[in-house]
Each structure stands twice: as C-alpha cells, then as structure tokens.
Predict the 3D structure of the following.
Amino acid sequence: MLFINVFCRKRIVSGYAVILLMIFYVTFWITRCLSLRDMDCIELQKVIKKSDFMIYDVKMGEGYHLICLPLDSIPVILQCLVIMSEDRRFYDHRGIDIFRAFTAVQTNYKAGKTVLGASTITQQLVKILWGSHKRTVLGKIHESFGALILDALLTKDRILELYFNSAVWIPGHIGIYNAVFHEYKKKVSALNQHEMIALSVSLPAPVLPEMLDTNRRYHNRYIRLKEEAVKTGLLESD
C-alpha cells in the first residue's frame, strides 16, 4: 500500500511538472510572436542576425542595413505570385497546412526524394527568425507549433509583410527591398512581370536570376508559375 501511495505521488508530481513545462513553452512562443506585432525594421534585423538559420545564408556585418517595406507598397501581383508559388492556401490555413503536408509526403515517397515542400509561409517565417539549419523531427515540430501560435496572434497581412522583409530573395540579400535594389537597381514597385516571377520561384532557396536558363529546377518552376498565373488571369500572356 505504501509503495502504491509513493508511486501515485510521483505520478502526480510528474504530471504537474509536465503541465508547468507546457505552460512555460506556450508562454515562450506567445511572447516571441507578440513581439513581432509592432516590431520595427531595426529590431527585425537584430532578430534575423541572431537566427541560427540565417547566419548560413547571409553575412550581416556592421554595415548591413535592412530596409523594410509596408505590405501596401509591395505590388499585389508579386504578393499573389509568391502565395501561388509557396503557399496557395495561405489565407485559409492556421499556420500549418495539413492537406499540403499529406500531399508532400505522398509525392516525395513516390519520387524517392524530396520534390515537394510542405512548409507554409508562416512556417518559413518562423524558420527564418528562430529556426536552425539542422533539420530534425523535433525541430520541425517546434517550428510548426510556433507557426500555429504566430498565425493565432498576428494578422495574415502582417505575417506576409514580415516574410517579404526577412526572406532571402537573392543570395546574400535579405528583404525584398534590398534584394531588388541590389539585383535590378530599381524600386520594388517598378518590377516587371518577368522579374516578379523570377523572384517568386527562387523561394525558399534563392538562386541568382541569371541562372534561369541554366538551373533546370528554377527554370521549370518559372514556366509552371507563369502558365498558372496567365491561366488564372493574374498575368497577361506575352
């Protein structure tokens, strides 16, 4: 009887410990995500600079200056192309897309390799800001939970705005403004149809636009997105 009582007490204590850890974990993510609501560009750059994921893609020295754009100054066509290419159910899911994940598993299993990604724009943003290049199941679960919290606390437009300003669009350059200015020497609002498609299909692993004709995967994604955009009426046919 004494053994049973001791065993029960240990189970109760363990249960309380698990509950406390869960509360701490959820609070941790809520605090992180809420900080992004009104975060300015300077603070966003600090977060990106600390990211274990981004340090492998961009060398952000002391002279690097990230310039952020409000969503309403980014062409709607470019926004639609990115959503069409990366996360077509962006405005319908709650941070993670179970249907897309299931489809990706089936497709990749049949192909015997990874040919279709399952990460939503929200998951990609979490990975950019707080993720790691070490891909593990536990890490994926961690990022997915963060995406659920982020989607619950921020508007879709704010999430999309943060994504445009923190993603690597051109190798070595973070944010849509910095990438476009460096590569095309123009404002984002002045991008033409070809340039917007090229930028959209380079995500989430960017390549230089001049590789469009030599990088087969990049070229095929460009053709597919262009055809779909024309078919849906988003773009006019050449």
